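thread: overnight batch results

M.L. [08:02]
morning all. the overnight job finished for the chain we discussed friday. pasting input first so we're all looking at the same thing
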Amino acid sequence: MKIAKSTYLFIFTLTLAGWYLFIGIYLNQLGYYNQESLFYIEKTKIVFEGLGNRLKVMGLTAPLLPFYSTFIFSSINSYLAPVIASAIGTAGLFYLISRSFLIRVKDDFYLFMVAILFVLHPGIIYMACSGKAIYLVVTFLYLFFLNLLKFYRSNTTFHVSVASMCLVTLIFCDYRFIWLTLFFIPLVLSITLASLNLGEKESIFRLFMSFNSPSLRRKLINKTFAIYVILFILPIASLICYKLLNQTHASDLNYFIESPLATWNVLVDKLNYDTVSTAVNYQLPELSILISLRVIYFCPLILFGMYLLRESTYQVLTVITLFAFVEFLHIKYDKLFLTYQYYLIFLFVSLLCMVFKVHTIKNKLAVKLGLAFVIVLQLYTGYIFLTHSLITDERRFITTLNRLNPNTDQSESKEMAEYINKLPDETHILMDDAVSYPIVAFTNNVKKLTLPYQLDTFLSAIETPYKYDDYILIATPKNPFTGYTQLNDRYIPEIRRLNSGVNYKRVYETDSWILYKVVSLQ
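M.L. [08:03]
and the structure it wrote out:
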């Protein structure tokens, strides 16, 4: 009995998921964790094991969808949940893209090239095995552009509606993609203009004809407005509702993007920038005029993708919006570095361009030879970008994967958590998980911890710790986050000054943390 290609594809997808899980679990055993996955692990522990009102943690932890995807697999293993989610999600993305090639292109060579990318590309391995939420961002961005290109072909607004839903999910995976809508505002006019049944091919003449005819002008305005409403109303409404939810439960509209208790990247991104800026061997930061060139260097395949779309100006402009988007991000967030995912999205948009247009090329042999060369080049540039990344987590991943040596980045957190785990269950420890969430993530019993999500108890414990807790975890001056918590080296002297009848004794100490015990009350 002949087995269908789709069955082979499904089997390979399962094998690919197993490959990713093997790498991710092995790196986990070597001690590799990143700040994002530790943050999700800690919040999941609070939801399942914490005391008091955890609704705020469940609903306002951001990005929301990556947190929930980790949440799903936490019953298997809380420490491996982010890795399982990213491995399965990336394998699912491979199946989605490969099915598109199978249906539209019907050439096994391109399936083989996609398979090589997903098996060997360092950036895709990083996306699949690090436990980060890059796979969700890439997947929903791919679906967003896929439905836009379907709309260009069929002129059916159903695809715009689906694209709008994909944009909503994309924003809830990474809030910064809300700025992508800015660049689609002028593009929608071009899209609408192209959809009108006019004999003229050039856009400028089509616009001139539309504005000089009352009926065409009315049709152009109505259709443009309709697409604006369909494409943007759902993302805007969803974001407004979520901000009102933040205002209701946290008294801050932007709590989910500005509070280190709600999202992991507020402090981590700033630390990455400060570390590079103050390093002895200072590295040249990203320059705005070079961002697009860096994108092309990382993904030369995007040039081929744009070449395939050359006959449709508005389709090329759709891809160019991504270049404008990353340039805008670099200008707006000038004190932050662009993470790997903002470069990786161009690789998948390139594949999408191939899905729609590569079958139209007549000289197939030249295209295949050129594509094979570019794919090999992509593997090299993907490795180089990770190796020389300005982001600590990205460099640590590729270093651990290359050398297969134990990663000690979280050794202090594990060491302190191990000591806390040995304390009796009835012990209470005051901690600020805005900065100490890695320690909380490695703690076996979060019930013994007094944390900010227990708002009233935490605030009272900060003022009079001896009434609520037996221990206090303090960030030392060497801790890079010491300036972002009240529980730093100035806290103990201040508490002693306010109440001289209470003594505090150091019981355990690392370079970044000191655990004090309340030893007497006079």
